[in-house]
Amino acid sequence: MAVEISLEKLLEAGAHFGHQRRRWNPKMQQFLFGMKEGIFVFDLVQTQKCLELALNEVTKAAAEDKIILLVGTKKQAKEKVAEVGKATGFPYVDERWLGGTLTNFSQMRSTVKNLENLRKRRLDANKIGFTKKEKLLLDRKIEKFDKSFGGIIKQEQLPDLLFIIDAGREKGAVAEAKRLNIPVIAVVDSNTDPSFIDFPIPMNDDAKKAVGYVLDLFVEAVEEAKTAPKKATTKAAPKAKTKTKTKTKEK
Questions:
Q1: Residue 129 has what pLDDT?
Q2: pLDDT for 56-92, tens place per residue?
Q3: CA 34: distance to chain centroid?
């Protein structure tokens, strides 16, 4: 059973509000219903259809145990992105996107390993005999690293799919994903070019309630994959061997 997407909840959350005309991107025309008081209004029926396609991809990826990287660093999304990442077990980026997170993955993993080592050192600080000042400096260093890499510390390999809140803001993440042929699902507002997004979700990306609703649907899509019955693979029955009669030549 697919995740149920409520038009009423999208409307209540303000998902239909776009930007003013001076900030719009003409490539978003297909997703817009019209204008109201100088502000573009999204066609929420289209938004609903796009959300359905995107969430189907999430369910499919989760069912196949693929890695989905959540990205959302704006204030309206970052707290919820971290919450959803922890709840689903998927890696997430809720602070500034660091260049090379995907395209220089080996270096990024090396930095993450450094964070893990720092945490181990902090746990053994009393045994090692660190002074109070040394502990404080170590805590500050861990806090700095954790802020940038805490959400991806358990990510051992490149993601199979990106789920982005505000594709316009997260251009770096989109560009790196495209370079590595990693498909992208992204919330796109009326001022964003959707051309580079595989599964665009056209809606207001500035409304905290709307963003929260989409991320709640993401969680439902992941849970849908976990509860769905696994398809049993039936092996074809082996063909019965037929005995061939050998003809004897008459002498």
A1: 66
A2: 999 999 999 999 999 999 999 999 999 999 999 999 9
A3: 30
Reference 28, options 5, 46, 55; nearest CA is 46
Q: Tell me the whole-structure pTM to 2 decimals.
A: 0.83
Write out the two tokens for 156: 């051992």
Question: Amino acid letter at 210?
Answer: A
Could you tell me if 149 and 164 lie in one domain? no
Q: How many domains does the chain have?
A: 2
Q: Domain range for residue 162?
A: 17-102+158-227
Q: Please indicate, yes or no, whether residues 27 and 148 belong to a single structural domain of this protein.
A: no
Q: CA nearest 76: which of 197, 206, 171? A: 206
Confidence of residue 225 (pLDDT cuts 50, 70, 90): very high
